Amino acid sequence: MSEPRAAHLVEAVLLTSARPVRLSTLSSVTGLPEQEVGSALSDLARRYSPEESGILLRNVAGGYLLSTNPACALAVERFRDEARPTPLSGAAYEVLSCALYHGPLTRSAISAVRGVNSDAVVRNLIDRGLLAEVGADRESPGSPALLDVTEELLVAAGAASREDFPPLETLLGEEELARVRERLHTAGEAPETA
Amino acid sequence: MTLDPSGRALSDFTVELDVYSGPYEWLLALILKEELEIFEVPLRELVALYVQARNPEAPNALERDTDFAGSAAALVLLKSRTLSPLSEDGEDEVEQALSPEQLAERLTRYLMVRRGAEALRERFRANAGHHPSAHLLPPRPGRLRIDPNRILEAARRSFSRPAEPPVRHLGPITVTLQELASLIRAALAGGGPVPYEELVRDMDRLHSAVTFAAALSLAHEGHLTLRQSEPLGPLTLEPIQ
Prior knowledge:
The structure holds two protein chains of two kinds.
Chain A (H helix, E strand, L loop, with lengths): L5 H10 L7 H8 L3 H14 L7 E6 L2 E6 L4 H8 L9 H13 L4 H8 L4 H9 L3 E6 L8 E5 L1 H6 L17 H16 L5
Antiparallel strand pairs in A: 1-2, 3-4
Chain B lengths: L13 E3 L4 E3 H9 L10 H11 L7 H23 L16 H27 L21 H12 L17 H12 L5 E2 H4 L5 H16 L3 E5 L6 E5 L2
Antiparallel strand pairs in B: 1-2, 3-5, 4-5
């Protein structure tokens, strides 16, 4: 039997992994230099493109992952006989957005940004593996736990890293900001009622 | 969604929501048993479903409307309590008035997070159809990386005591569970069953409640049996021989 090609080795390792595999790990387990693994990944990306295959090579959460093509999702879900998880609520996405852009942060910091108690939402997101306690805020009384988003969140959002998300400052237009300030200014000037 | 005009009010009202699909009464039960988070239930959608299914010509329309309004109001109250920020030290705090600039800054921060949430929802939706390999590798012994700081943190949480809750708002203790457990034991000493109503006939609400708790405690310990032939029917305490 001839020696397997670099792309074959990388492909075989990725096939057996349910989680993203880092470039350094691929290099270590295949015994190939990172540069060679990189070119093997480029080969695989061409072969596993949405137009060519039912399997896709994705660069998510700092690693590489083989996943099914979303176009085949219905058949896969029928075969696995499992429903997709319940969709997240608007509150849950807000908590994730807090942790993504301002994390790691405490539960009370999340509640302060949202203006409402978010403990129940946080509990639900920890159960779903999208948020995790990553340490403690030793500066605050009682050293409350610090929360941050997990690798699962990056995979679910199809993001290679946090840098894949648009910067927070770009999410709100100047026009909208001006409208908010104008409304607050008008409310501040309204005469007090008895 | 269906709303059958016959039968017990709301018993046939079923709802179809993202988080739950089934009888409305079961939805209430799941929320009360904390098996479904109230914050996940879109109340506005729930009311819209009821209004859509409502039949004003039904003979018990008023009873249904009243029941629904009552339960929906309770859900609104429960949800607002769940979402209200908790006071850190248990005392009522009057939040300091914010200047328009501070308010604008806070609102801007929240709006940015909200826009981020909307973008995140869209990314989740776009990536929902990807399924990774089902082959899960077991972790290899000896290759697990354990962060000593996290172990320390877990130990600290396990062995630390939670802060004592403030009890200044409570009045002096006028009745104890032990006293009323003794009263129940004395009543059952004759060997026959004793109606709960008879036990608490001359008691105020507090004593009645503590008597009930004492009876539950004694039943749990195996000293007596509580019998109730039908829901909300008379309760009887029977000694276990």
